[in-house]
């Protein structure tokens, strides 16, 4: 009981040590911030240690405080880099401690943080940790996670101005789809594709690359990969054809980057780890589709924009390899 009380006091102290935004003198404000930093650096590892020790003999009281305590570890959004580093390290230790005994609860709490779609730093941490654990999701819970995660991914994909968030989202999609893809239906896949497609036109090169990889990964691990790869291919054509029209350079580059990721999977057969619906393997691109890709790439090789030329050459190399 004493441990529980100490945990609660530590968490309450952590909530109190938030820097105020009122008008203060610079020197006084700086001293106050240093004091708050020292307190946070002391409280966060204390929470982690007590949380881990109590976890070995969880009582019903402790279980009731789980969600309450978990929020303390998302000091990863703190303005101070030392506090963020300490919080991330403590979170890693806590996950390692509880991995064998409370895996399901860990996954559920990480999902809740993803669902909040909160500050970028905390969201990146939640996405990263969930990506590390998603391959351990129990089969009977995969469909439930699929149904609940897809709307979250769609909302997060709309934060295209935050490069690091999009990169974290893509890493999670790449890790989660091999496990959850077989539990999706056609509407789930279409929802994800429609969410990531607009990001191919983003001014940020990193966001475009992330969108391209996410699009191909979603199709690749769906239950009907060839069908959705072809669906994606036709959507890409619609973004840059006819070539006589002046399409934005960002869009053209995004499509070419997506071609580079897409080409190796066109016409491929599902693997044992990637089961497809009966008859789905019969659908796929024809020779006409490959010729259209080839002609489109040749056209953009002669572009005056060096970025477009580079993207076209990389995709062409992938096509001819």
Automatic annotation (TrEMBL):
GO cellular component terms attached to this protein's record? cytoplasm; nucleus
The record lists the membrane-crossing segments as 47-70
Q: Which InterPro entries match?
A: ARM-like, ARM-type_fold, Htt_N_HEAT_rpt-1, Huntingtin, Huntingtin_fam
Q: Does the keyword Transmembrane helix apply?
A: yes
Q: Any signal peptide, and if so, which residues?
A: none
Q: What SUPFAM superfamilies is this protein classified in? A: ARM repeat
Which UniProt keyword terms apply here?
Membrane, Transmembrane, Transmembrane helix
- The highest taxon in the source lineage is Eukaryota
Report what the protein is called: Huntingtin
């Amino acid at each position: 009981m004493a441990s529980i009380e100490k945990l609660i006091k530590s968490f309450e102290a952590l909530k109190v040590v938030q820097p105020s935004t009122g008008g203060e003198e610079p020197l006084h404000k700086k001293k106050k911030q240093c004091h708050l930093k020292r307190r946070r650096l002391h409280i966060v590892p204390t929470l982690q240690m007590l949380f881990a020790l109590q976890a070995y003999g969880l009582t019903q009281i402790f279980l009731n405080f789980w969600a309450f305590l978990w929020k303390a570890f998302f000091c990863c959004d703190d303005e101070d880099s030392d506090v963020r580093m300490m919080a991330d390290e403590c979170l890693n230790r806590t996950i390692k401690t509880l991995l064998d005994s409370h895996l399901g609860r860990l996954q559920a709490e990480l999902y809740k943080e993803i669902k909040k779609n909160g500050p970028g730093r905390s969201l990146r941490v939640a996405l990263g940790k969930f990506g590390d654990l998603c391959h351990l999701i129990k089969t009977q819970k995969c469909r439930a996670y699929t149904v609940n995660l897809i709307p979250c991914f769609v909302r997060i994909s709309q934060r295209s101005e935050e490069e690091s968030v999009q990169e974290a989202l893509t890493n999670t999609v790449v890790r989660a789809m091999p496990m959850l893809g077989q539990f999706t239906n056609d509407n789930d896949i279409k929802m994800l594709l429609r969410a990531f497609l607009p990001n191919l036109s983003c001014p940020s090169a990193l966001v475009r690359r992330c969108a391209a990889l996410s699009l191909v990964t979603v199709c690749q691990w769906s239950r009907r990969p060839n069908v959705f790869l072809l669906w994606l291919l036709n959507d890409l054509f619609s973004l840059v054809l006819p070539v006589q029209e002046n399409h934005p350079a960002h869009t053209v580059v995004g499509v070419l980057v997506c071609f580079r990721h897409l080409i190796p999977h066109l016409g491929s057969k599902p693997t044992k780890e990637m089961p497809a619906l009966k008859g789905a393997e019969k659908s796929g691109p024809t020779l006409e589709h490959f010729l259209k890709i080839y002609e489109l790439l040749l056209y953009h090789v002669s572009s005056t924009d060096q970025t477009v030329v580079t993207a076209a050459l990389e995709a062409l190399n992938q096509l001819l390899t």
